[in-house]
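Hi R.,

Here's the chain you asked about this morning:
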Amino acid sequence: MASPFRPFQRSYNYLYRTAHEKPVMFYSVVLGVIGPVMTVVIPPIRQSLGYVPPPAIPSSYPLPNRPRRPISGYEDE
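And the predicted structure, written out as tokens:
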């Protein structure tokens, strides 16, 4: 009877051999898999450690609460 862990052992052996024979391809795949996983895992961890996101940057300049003066000077001749 075959062991239920045989497919995993073959996968482990393949990854082990690939890491030694083609390390660039192996680590490229590892980093490619870790990236999307980090987008799901990291934000809850940061929040549990007390991280508070900074306030949003204003998208417009606040206008002063006074009447506007007409421009006169160097550029209005």
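The chain is about 55% helix and 0% strand.

Let me know if you need anything else.
M.
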